[in-house]
Amino acid sequence: MAAKTKTKTQIEFTCPNCSATVSVERAGAVTACPACKQKLGKVAQLDQLLARWWEPRRWRADLVKPNVPYLIERLWTANGQGERLYLGVSPKYTNYDIFRNMVTRLMVRGIDDGWASLTFPADPLAEDPQYVLTIVDSERFAESVEKLFPEVDWDEPVSVAVADAVGATPTAAKRGKKGKKKS
């Protein structure tokens, strides 16, 4: 019996800068456009994959049309993490809906900047693809959240709450925070 060789199927994307076709071995692999050399990042790939995933399913009444912010929000707020982070940060002038929107935009930037990691499923066009969002640099995440809400007194208990919400060790989130208390 001859052994089957698994052929890799490349995924083709359109460069958002010049509209050239960019072939990628596996979804989520950051690749430079062969025409303009612009980087085709994970967020741009996710946007195009969600559009392709939605197209054959658009007639299903039970599906919400996904977009990048919608998916990223669903990932980072899963299992009550969004509420825990909101309660831990407790911004004075921001309700939960605005907080969720601001942190979602921050997470999208984090994916492009590399401090958050988005893992693509093996088949992103499957019926129920499972994406995974991970904070790989909890310090940068905590610093970025801190910049979003300058009115918050960023003392140790808040840092611990932020670390707990993202599943990091509190000591990593506390580093660099000493001496930054507001008067």
Key terms for this structure?
11% strand; disordered C terminus; 183 residues; alpha+beta; two-stranded antiparallel sheet; 6 strands; two-stranded antiparallel ribbon
Short description:
The chain has seven helices and six strands.
Polypeptide structure, described:
By secondary structure, the chain is of the alpha+beta class. The chain has a domain at 63-174. 42% of the residues lie in helices and 11% in strands. It contains 7 helices and 6 strands; from the N terminus they run ββββααααββααα. The chain has helices at 42-54, 68-76, 81-89, 96-113, 138-148, 156-166, 170-174; strands spanning 11-14, 21-24, 31-32, 39-40, 116-119, 132-135. The strands form 3 sheets. It has a two-stranded antiparallel ribbon. β3 and β4 (39-40) form a beta hairpin. It is globular. Residues 170-183 have low confidence and may be disordered.
Write the layout of secondary structure elements.
Layout: E1 11-14, E2 21-24, E3 31-32, E4 39-40, H1 42-54, H2 68-76, H3 81-89, H4 96-113, E5 116-119, E6 132-135, H5 138-148, H6 156-166, H7 170-174
Antiparallel strand pairs: 1-2, 3-4, 5-6
